[in-house]
Every structure is written in C-alpha cells, then in structure tokens.
Design goal:
Layout: H1 2-11, E1 15-19, H2 38-41, H3 44-47, H4 50-55, H5 57-71, H6 78-90, E2 95-97, H7 103-106, E3 112-114, E4 117-124, E5 131-133, E6 153-157, H8 166-178, E7 181-185, H9 196-203, E8 207-211, E9 224-227, H10 231-239
Parallel strand pairs: 1-2, 1-7, 2-3, 7-8, 8-9
Antiparallel strand pairs: 4-5, 4-6
Helix pairs in contact: 6-10, 8-9
The structure holds adenosine-5-diphosphoribose (APR).
Adenosine-5-diphosphoribose binds near residues 20, 33, 34, 186 and 191.
C-alpha cells in the first residue's frame, strides 16, 4: 500500500492537499470530534457562533484565549515538513485547510487557502473597519473592545452560521474539480460546504488518499485509498522526506 501511494504521489501532476484538525493533532492541538474532541467538552453553537459571541462575549473570548494560549509556541510536526517538501518537489501544491491555527503557513507552505479563516487577527464585530493582530496581550481586558467604536472584537475565523469567504471556497472547489490526486488529511469530512471538497475531487475522477487513523464519511471505492495512520508518522514516508 505505501509503495502504491508513493508512486501515485510521484506520478500525479495536479495534487491538492485538504486538511482538518487531525493534521495538527501531533503538534498538540485538539481535534473537535472523536474521544478527546473539543465538542465533547464544549457546545459549538455556544462558543463558535455569532449569536454565542453576542450573547456571552466573555465566555466565548475566554475560550478563544485558552485556544490561543494552547496554540502559542506550537511547532508544526514532521507531517507539515513533509507537505512543505512535497510543495517544493511539485512546484505547485495548493493546500486547502479547515484549520485556523496557521501551521501550514508557519511550516513554510505557500498557496494556503484557509476556508475557516485564521486566529492570526481579530476585527470589530460591527465591521467599523478596525482590525488587529490577535495575540494574548490583546486580551488583557476581556472581552476585547474595538478602540475605534467601542463594540466588542471578534476573531477572524468563520463562526457557525456564517458564510465561508466566497473567493476561497470557489477556488477550493475549482481546484478539486481539476486535480488528479487529493490528499485528505485529518478531517472527519462532516462540516459542509468544506466537506464537499473531497467529494468534488472524486466526482471529477481524481483519486483521494485519505490519511486518518479512523474511518470518515468518504466512500469505500476504488478511487479512495485509506491510509489508517497518523499524519505526522506517515507523511514523511509517503513523500520521501529523509530524517
Ligand atoms: N493524523 C491524522 N488524522 C487524525 C489524527 C492524526 N494524528 N488524529 C486525529 N485524526 C482525525 C480524526 O480521526 C478525525 O477524523 O482527524 C479528524 C478530526 O476531525 P474533526 O475533529 O471533526 O475536525 P475537522 O474535520 O477538521 O472539523 C471540521 O468542524 O467544528 C468545525 O470549524 C471546525 O474546521 C472544523 C470543522
């Protein structure tokens, strides 16, 4: 199986990467679903929605502060290095991610499409135009307020109930419609419209290599190769990244 996947990656000319929270698990960032998932402990509609932020800004910002602190100083694991290595080998390797942790960019990958935004910045909830880098020192007083209009700030991630950035989602589907191989790494493929991207690749006749220790919503057919391994363990092997 490994040799077959290595050969596929090597010979494919239009490879696209699609990742979810599991891609960052070996860097110490929790996933949302599964045994130790964040949604087992917290309610997404309360903490990751516009209505939740408006109703309980302190609670929501306290949660994001915890995630920000967890994310500070996080080092992208060898699986990220493997994708950076593959991007150099291929010359072009678009990376579509559902993650907001910024680890793809931090590990040197370019052409990264962040479907759900990123925790790098925060902006004014009522869109007065203020925006700033999101660091823990911005969160001295909670919840953080806009210095221009006094309303609360929001992290620049896509909250439940909000549309995904139009240009990012349309380019992501365009990439899926035209790739010959998609590596789907660390995602339960459950949250639409992002979850439709691997299916769009399959619909165009591409092969999908799924890297995930657990099963997902992807179909079991001849175009899906499931590698039931952890991203950090197997990606360096699959792309030939030497120790
Ligand atoms: N390597 C690869 N996959 C892993 C690893 C690992 N080391 N550890 C866990 N996984 C897999 C899990 O088996 C699971 O299928 O990662 C997947 C994570 O799934 P989710 O927690 O559902 O995360 P994701 O698919 O990214 O969720 C999509 O849901 O809550 C929203 O906005 C949030 O972007 C997120 C979206």
């Amino acid at each position: 199986m490994i040799n077959k996947v290595q050969r596929l990656i090597k010979k494919s000319t239009n490879v696209v990467i699609f990742t979810g929270a599991g891609m960052s698990r070996e860097s110490g960032i929790r996933t949302f679903r599964g045994e130790e998932g964040l949604w087992k402990q917290y309610k997404p509609e309360q903490l990751s929605s516009i209505t939740g932020l408006q109703a309980q800004p302190e609670l929501v910002w306290d949660w994001y502060k915890k995630r920000l602190i967890t994310g500070e100083g996080v080092i992208p694991h060898r699986g990220y290095d493997a994708l950076t290595h593959l991007q150099k080998l291929k010359g072009s390797l678009p990376v579509i991610t559902q993650n907001v942790d910024g680890l793809h960019r931090l590990s040197g990958q370019t052409d990264v499409l962040e479907l759900h935004g990123s925790m790098r910045t925060a902006s004014c909830l009522v869109k007065c135009g203020f925006s700033t880098e999101l660091t823990t020192d911005l969160l001295g007083s909670m919840p953080p307020h806009c210095p221009w209009c006094g309303n609360i700030l929001r992290p620049d991630i896509v909250l439940f109930g909000e549309p995904l950035p139009a240009e990012v989602i349309s380019r992501s589907y365009e990439l899926a419609d035209n790739c010959d191989l998609m590596l789907v790494i660390g995602t339960s493929v459950q949250v639409w419209p992002a979850a439709g991207i691997p299916f769009a690749a399959l619909d165009n006749g591409a092969t999908v290599i799924e890297i995930n220790p657990a099963g997902t919503e992807l179909p079991c057919n001849e175009n899906v190769i499931s590698v039931r391994r952890k991203a950090g363990e197997i990606l360096p092997l699959l792309v030939g990244l030497k120790e």
